[in-house]
């Protein structure tokens, strides 16, 4: 869809007209040419199916009755399945109004009765096109906000985290299984939630379940459920998480810790879409989007026999690797400021600043516990700091004097002159960001002009 930048500029929508009456379809197309819409005309349900599956449209106008009395409803169903952003308008005879109203409940934009008032028809299509355009603009705006303030709680601008977000957007609308890998504390469940919220199942349940540290019997019961009398104490039927998550998303965390015998049962469920409760003879259908996560090297685990290779390939429809925090240090200042603002608001306190030496110390630390550890540290600092500015002295001692920093990261601050410390911080930050001054300034908590001035002052390039 295209439009000019003026507020009341005409829209140029892609319109599919489905009508078995050739002349009537031509009249509608001609009426839509005047405001600048581009129309594609088909005269059968088969032709409409082909266009909807392979074309791209903003508005679909379909006669309700063609080969059969509900052909238009089939077009509506196809449009909802294959053209997520399209709006569908029903054209009906007077006697079909009740069916057309039912179509509204099925997601149609509106209906119009024959004989058509062409001015009313044009206005109706224009409104539908404007609705689609507004939705596109909102999507674009959300993308801009995601870049500025984070995507589904995923904060960062590093190349690594941008790749994660891109992959989430790509795989979420499909139904393929997703395997999320990464160290503990990197935010794998947050990624799983983002996949769910951007999927077609977003209005259904997101059910997280941790597979680690449970006996095989308890794990089987939790996953698949049981019937009354299955074991001592089973006084009623109980559904497992597979059935509880029916038509939604099931997130199975720490899948690499699952016992081998349970892996074979999980594989069967994923292959057949059926679960058998403990104590039951008959299987029940289940339909879930399966997302799993692990902090283990699953490929090596499968090669060594610690994880079934066939199950590994089954759950790895798409893989999203969440990088550790030490590999995306340029995101740390943004995460720190985000968490500070969050906890200050919870405590109803003014948001404190962070001194440059304190931020450099936070950036230099290895963060073995990743984002989870950073979050806990910031929460503690905000709670205990009564000053207007968070300084090095407010940071936990193990971070201030950490000896395990990566080579090239800023080491201990003790005994180093501030000018030398600042120069080294700028030099290493620029190296870390590949010379990107904007990112370096953000990490250092200073403006780009200030950074440029200090580069000249210290003779850095």
In short:
By secondary structure, the chain is an alpha/beta fold. It has helices spanning 22-33, 45-54, 71-82, 97-105, 118-149, 159-171, 188-197, 216-224, 241-244, 260-272, 298-303, 309-315, 332-346, 356-364, 370-384, 397-400, 418-432, 437-444, 448-458; strands at 2-3, 11-12, 14-18, 38-42, 59-63, 87-92, 110-113, 178-181, 206-210, 225-226, 238-239, 249-253, 274-275, 284-285, 289-294, 318-321, 353-354, 389-390.
Notes on the structure:
The chain is α/β, with parallel strands linked by helices. It is built from 19 helices and 18 strands. Helix 13 (332-346) packs across helix 15, helix 17 (418-432) crosses helix 18 (437-444) and helix 18 crosses helix 19 (448-458). The radius of gyration is 29 Å and the shape is flat. The chain has a 5-stranded parallel sheet, sandwiched between helices. It has a 5-stranded parallel sheet with strand order 9-12-15-8-16. A two-stranded antiparallel ribbon has the order 1-2. Helix 4 links the parallel strand 6 (87-92) and strand 7 (110-113). It starts with a strand and ends with a helix.
């Amino acid at each position: 869809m295209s439009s000019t930048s003026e507020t009341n500029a005409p829209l140029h929508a892609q319109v599919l007209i489905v009508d078995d009456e050739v002349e009537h379809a031509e009249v509608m197309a001609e009426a839509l040419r005047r405001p600048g819409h581009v129309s594609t005309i088909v005269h059968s349900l088969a032709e409409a199916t082909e266009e909807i599956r392979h074309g791209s449209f903003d508005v679909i106008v379909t006669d309700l009755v063609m080969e059969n009395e509900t052909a238009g409803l089939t077009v509506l169903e196809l449009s909802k399945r294959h053209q997520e952003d399209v709006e569908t308008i029903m054209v009906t005879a007077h006697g079909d109004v009740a069916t057309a109203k039912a179509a509204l409940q099925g997601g149609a934009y509106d209906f119009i009765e024959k004989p058509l008032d062409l001015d009313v028809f044009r206005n109706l299509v224009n409104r539908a096109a404007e609705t689609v355009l507004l939705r596109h603009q909102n999507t674009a705006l959300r993308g801009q906000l995601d870049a500025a303030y984070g995507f589904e709680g995923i904060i960062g601008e590093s190349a690594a985290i941008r790749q994660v977000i891109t992959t989430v957007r790509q795989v979420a609308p499909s139904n393929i299984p997703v395997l999320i890998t990464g160290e503990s504390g990197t935010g794998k469940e947050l990624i799983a939630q983002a996949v769910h919220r951007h999927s077609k199942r977003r209005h259904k349940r997101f059910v997280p379940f941790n597979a680690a540290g449970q006996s095989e019997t308890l794990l089987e019961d939790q996953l698949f459920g049981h019937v009354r009398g299955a074991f001592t104490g089973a006084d009623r039927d109980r559904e497992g998480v597979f059935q509880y998550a029916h038509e939604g998303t099931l997130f199975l965390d720490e899948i690499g810790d699952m016992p081998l015998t349970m892996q074979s049962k999980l594989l069967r469920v994923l292959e057949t879409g059926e679960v058998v409760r403990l104590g039951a003879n008959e299987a029940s259908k289940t339909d879930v989007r399966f997302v799993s996560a692990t902090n283990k090297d699953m490929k090596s685990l499968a090669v060594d026999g610690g994880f079934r290779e066939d199950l590994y390939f089954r759950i790895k429809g798409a893989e999203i690797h969440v990088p550790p925090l030490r590999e995306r240090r340029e995101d740390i200042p943004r995460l720190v400021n985000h968490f500070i603002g969050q906890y200050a608001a919870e405590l109803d306190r003014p948001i404190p600043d962070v001194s440059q030496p304190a931020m450099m110390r936070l950036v230099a630390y290895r963060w073995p516990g990743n984002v989870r550890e950073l979050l806990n540290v910031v929460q503690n600092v905000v709670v205990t700091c009564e000053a207007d500015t968070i300084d090095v002295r407010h940071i936990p001692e193990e971070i201030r004097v950490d000896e395990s920093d990566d080579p090239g990261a800023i080491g201990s601050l003790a005994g180093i002159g501030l000018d030398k410390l600042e120069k080294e911080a700028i030099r290493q930050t620029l190296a870390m960001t590949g010379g990107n001054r904007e990112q370096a300034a953000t990490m250092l908590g200073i403006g780009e002009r200030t950074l440029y001035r200090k580069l000249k002052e210290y003779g850095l390039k």
